Amino acid sequence: MKNWKTWLSLCLITTGIYWLGGCQKGDLTLGDKIVPGNNLNIVLVDTFTVKTSTVAVLDTFVTSADSNVYVGRWRDVNTGAQDFTGYITPLFPSNSLADLIGEVTFDSLVFQMPFRYAYGDTLENVKLAIHQLNEVIESDVYYNNKSFAYNSKPILEKTIPPHRREWGNLRLRLPATLGQTLFDGFRNRTITDDDDIHEIIPGFALRMTTIRNLIVGLNTISDNAAIKLYYHENLVDSKAESLDIKLTGPHLSNIVSNYTGTPMAKLVLPSDYVNSTLTGNRSFIMTGGQLRTRLEFPYFDMIKGSDYFVGVNRAELVFTPIRSTTKDNAPPPSTLTLYQLNQNNEITNVVPTTPGGATAVSGSYAFVDGIEFRNNYTFALTAYMQQLMKGQVEAKPLLMNVATSTTLNFSRVALGNSFNDDYQVKLRLYFTTSK
Asked: A Pfam family matched by this chain, by name (predicted)?
């Protein structure tokens, strides 16, 4: 029965396209496209179903090599919650406070870090909490799943403006008691190295406590990343002085995803996937998170067995991100690449740009922000589809992955499937056909 149904479907597809191609003498119109040629040896089919779903990759990635630490939260009814916590370490500053003769007075202690990145809703202020760590971050390689224990009560929680016009240095006044302790330690030489300063401040954990879709990056390698200790000498003409306790020591970002209560809660085993029909006819990709898009071409084998279709002349896969403006401050990943998967959603090979090649097919994000906003990713699949047609490669699920980067640069994108009315994916196949 199954073979009979497959044969019937193949006959219907073949007969329909043959009728469109064989009964005309001029240009061929198919799928709202016009293919020129009097002999009608080439036809375009752009109505193939592309089955998409969302999977969770379990690979970890290094965050301690990034020049930024990331702080923020993201919430979505389909993809759950992502929380970003940044960890930073102070370093001992060379200073001459102990050598100053006469009375010297502590003034204030200010936390300062440069803004370098913001993704998402920057229209309203958010609350940032600074917690003191319970342990020191040693120099090492740290991944996105690493965290450090910290005091549950923040030493400071303040409202900050993440608007782009406010970009520069984040400056927050720390408790005066902490500043006085540091000042006294430098003056009486009880703080003389990193170990001494870590006895007082092992490090900081930075968290965003406002529930808003916003991720910010704070730079850890700039000279402006410091705890600034302000003081003055008790002289008539003295000026305010400052000592910079650099925050350029070991650092990392911890990223936690929680899919509870969402369709992604089904992603338990490596082989699991969530069909895009269960998430509003869209699949998801998230950098700085685990989510990726898996795709399949379930009916291509029906064409492959036809004598009418000689070969693939050209193939393009076009995805339309679900986005309506560039003013959302939430650009999709700049580049996506395609890989072949096994049944456990593990990458086995690239989708090659040339037959047998080792370079993966990639698609760059493109948009036209005119009267009508348009955007897409286009993947050239000619070589891969030619190999599929000839039976040189096995038809496997594919993974749409983010390009490898040395920085996190959080971004996400939702992609329409074959049933999405406004953001429909298209597999465009130009076939060479027999007369």
From this structure: DUF4270
Predicted pLDDT at 157:
96
CA distance 374 to 279: 22
Q: Write down the domain spans for the chain.
A: 2-58+270-433, 68-258
- The whole-angstrom separation of Cα 247 and Cα 112 is 9
Distance of CA 118 to the CA centre of its chain: 13
Separation of CA 371 from chain center:
28
Calpha distance 49→171 (Å, rounded): 53
Tell me: pLDDT of 240 over 50. yes
Contacts with 424 (C-beta within 8 Å, 6 or more apart), sequence order: 320, 416, 417, 418
- Note the pLDDT of residue 165: 54
Residues 6+ apart with CB under 8 A from 283: 52, 53, 54, 276, 293, 294, 295, 414, 415, 417
Select from 295, 366, 291, 380 the least CA-distant residue to 335: 366
| Gap between the Cα atoms of 326 and 229, Å rounded | 41
pLDDT in tens, 362-401: 999 999 988 889 999 999 999 999 889 888 888 899 999 9
CA distance 133 to 152: 9
Decide if pLDDT at 20 tops 60.
Answer: no
pLDDT of residue 164: 58
Give percent helix, percent strand, percent coil of the chain, each to the nearest 5. 15, 40, 45
